[in-house]
Amino acid sequence: MLALRDQLIPATANLTSLDPGIRVEVVAKEARPARLDCAVKTSMGFGGFTAALVLTRA
Fold first, then answer.
1. For the chain, what are the domain ranges?
2. Which GO terms describe its molecular function (predicted)?
3. What are the φ/ψ torsions at residue 11 (nearest 5 degrees)?
4. What was the pLDDT predicted at 57?
5. Which of 27, 30, 40, 44 lies 20 to 30 A from 11 at CA?
6. For 38, how many CA atoms within 13 A lie in the half-sphere containing its CB?
7. Residue 45 confidence (pLDDT)
């Protein structure tokens, strides 16, 4: 919700190094401004409880 409100992609926590052979765009050190219209939050836990929440801007 904060990413949608602030229009920022948060940096990946605890990222210390990247494999140069993997071509993935990663937000590594600090949040990056972006136009965000939606976000997905997933949650998985032991015992089979799984959920997904799709958020959009108002």
1. 2-56
2. acyltransferase activity, transferring groups other than amino-acyl groups
3. -70, 155
4. 86
5. 44
6. 5
7. 86
Q: For the segment 2-58, what is each residue's pLDDT rounded down to a tens digit?
A: 999 999 999 999 988 888 898 888 998 899 999 999 999 999 988 878 999 999 987
Question: Which two tokens mark 34?
Answer: 């972006």
Which among 27, 6, 9 is positioned nearest to 18, based on CA atoms? 27
Q: At 8, list the tokens.
A: 């920022």
Residue whose token pair is 């997905």: 40
CA pair distance 1, 15, nearest whole angstrom: 22
- The angle at the Cα of 52, spanning 48 to 36, to the nearest 5 degrees, equals 155
Strand partners, 41: 53
